[in-house]
Design a protein that fits this description.
Elements (H helix, E strand, L loop, with lengths): L1 E3 L16 E3 L11 E3 H8 L6 H9 L3 E3 L2 E2 L6 E3 L3 E4 L6 E5 L5 E5 L7 E13 L2 E6 L4 E4 L9 E5 L4 E6 L6 E4 L8 E8 L8 E4 L4 E3 L3 E5 L18
Antiparallel strand pairs: 1-2, 3-6, 4-5, 4-7, 7-8, 8-9, 10-11, 10-13, 11-12, 13-14, 15-16, 15-19, 16-17, 17-18
């Protein structure tokens, strides 16, 4: 399914005046406005082929994995923190936000091999001593752990989604900013301000700015830090 390129998500880092048509992401994990179709990543970001049929051939040959699982759908949606692996290419890629809020593919540091960070956005009791956790990328798991809360981030092995570590949102943690005027930046939490009204909770950062809690994605604690790619913090991204 195609869509006019001017109507595509503003988070795609692609020229708007070169082509008339883009591709619509398949309804799957990430929301449409928060994802990049696989075709765009492989063709326009990574330059693995000039034509759609070339990318389709790569996918049909089982050469592409996302979070450790083979993907053949050229419209498959890739979103924040997804890990892309391509046969015969040494580097894996991780989907991140740049300083303009655009989704980009960065070389994933080898230290992260076989793991991914998942932010907990929903927690539901599904049975006796069982809790279902919903993550920012649409995936879910069932666990008996009661110490995990929304806004926490889990380091998990992929593709089997085995929990390795818990990164709790707390003072002193390193966070990646996923929205607002400081999107794409790394910062350290100074304090968390809990509001008693319906106003969103605020987080104050050591770097001298504050933003809402929803934009916090924990990447480091005193015990563990997820290795993030080299980030572009310039405000002059294309």
């Amino acid at each position: 399914m195609k869509t006019k390129i001017m109507m595509a998500s503003r988070k795609l880092k692609i020229p708007r005046k070169t082509n008339f048509w883009s591709v619509t992401p398949t309804p799957a994990t990430h929301k449409k406005q928060d994802s990049i179709p696989m075709l765009i990543v492989l063709r326009d970001y990574l330059k693995l082929g000039d034509k759609e049929r070339e990318i389709t051939r790569i996918l049909n040959n089982n050469m592409v994995k996302v979070d450790g699982k083979i993907i053949k759908d050229r419209r498959f949606p890739l979103g924040f923190m997804d890990v892309l692996s391509i046969e015969n290419i040494d580097n894996d890629y991780i989907i991140m936000y740049d300083s303009k809020g655009k989704l980009v593919a960065r070389a994933n540091p080898p230290e992260n091999k076989g793991t991914k960070l998942f932010k907990v956005v929903k927690k539901t009791i599904v049975g006796k001593d069982k809790i279902q956790l919903g993550f920012h990328d649409g995936k879910t798991i069932t666990t008996d752990r009661k110490d995990i809360h929304t806004s926490d981030v889990l380091l998990m092995k992929v593709p089997n989604l085995e929990i390795v570590d818990l990164l709790r949102l707390a003072d002193g943690d390193k966070v990646f900013i996923t929205g607002g005027s400081h999107v794409g930046e790394l910062a350290t939490i100074k304090s968390i301000e809990v509001k008693k009204s319906s106003v969103k909770n605020m987080v104050h950062l050591n770097e001298g700015f504050s933003t809402i809690k929803d934009y916090m994605f924990v990447v480091g604690t005193p015990k563990y830090t997820f290795k993030t790619p080299e980030l572009e913090v310039t405000r002059n991204d294309e």
